[in-house]
């Protein structure tokens, strides 16, 4: 399992997953996303976005639209997506990364702390209000200092061993009955060896 930058050709896949999960697609740009990929099957397991707000006063870094496909959950995939995004924030010169989310408990394990909405930079105060009105009524603001972010060891271990969860029963192979043919009475154009 590894996390890499999203590719332009993955836009439709990302938009479909964002819609399915009810996540925020405001100002969508695929180049802002990272995608977690299984090394063996090459399946996409999760994704997330770093959004940089460039206001008149200051630039602000926000994590948003973080999602893990159901069959990949509880295996450290989200943790590593978030880690990559926080690293990008640091690489872009940010000391603090924000998130406006309804998953505060989940993010707390990495060092994210609640912040009073009044302490948010202006661009994020407006975004929080919009997000609460339109997407996540219970969204709260969080922040983490880039140098204090940490992935717990048990999530690192799970990520190394991650695999897709049990899939549904495979569909049975189609037989003649599925096409309205009685196999005992049918004649075949070619010899089937029966």
From TrEMBL:
Region (Disordered): 157-194
Keywords in alphabetical order: Acyltransferase, Transferase
Domain annotation N-acetyltransferase: ranges: 1-147
InterPro entries attached to this UniProt entry: Acyl_CoA_acyltransferase, GNAT_dom
E.C. number(s) listed in UniProt: 2.3.1.-
Regions of compositional bias (Acidic residues) in chain numbering: 166-185
EC class: transferase
Pfam families noted in UniProt: Acetyltransf_1 (PF00583)
Organism domain of life: Archaea
Any one GO molecular-function label of the UniProt entry: acyltransferase activity, transferring groups other than amino-acyl groups
Listed name of the protein: GNAT family N-acetyltransferase
Source organism: Haloarcula terrestris
């Amino acid at each position: 399992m590894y996390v890499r930058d999203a590719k332009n050709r993955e836009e439709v896949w990302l938009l479909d997953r964002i819609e399915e999960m009810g996540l925020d697609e405001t100002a969508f740009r695929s180049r802002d996303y990272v995608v977690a990929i299984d090394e063996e099957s090459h399946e996409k397991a999760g994704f997330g976005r770093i959004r940089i707000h460039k206001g008149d006063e200051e630039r602000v870094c926000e994590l948003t639209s973080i999602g893990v496909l159901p069959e990949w959950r509880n295996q450290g995939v989200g943790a590593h997506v978030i880690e990559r995004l926080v690293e990008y924030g640091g690489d872009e010169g940010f000391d603090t990364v924000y998130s406006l989310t309804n998953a505060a408990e989940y993010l707390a394990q990495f060092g994210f702390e609640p912040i009073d909405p009044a302490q948010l930079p202006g661009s994020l105060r407006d975004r929080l209000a919009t997000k609460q009105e339109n997407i996540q009524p219970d969204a709260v603001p969080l922040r983490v200092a880039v140098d204090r972010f940490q992935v717990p060891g048990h999530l690192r271990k799970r990520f190394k061993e991650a695999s897709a969860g049990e899939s549904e029963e495979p569909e049975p192979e189609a037989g003649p009955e599925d096409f309205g043919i009685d196999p005992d009475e049918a004649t075949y154009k070619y010899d089937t060896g029966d």
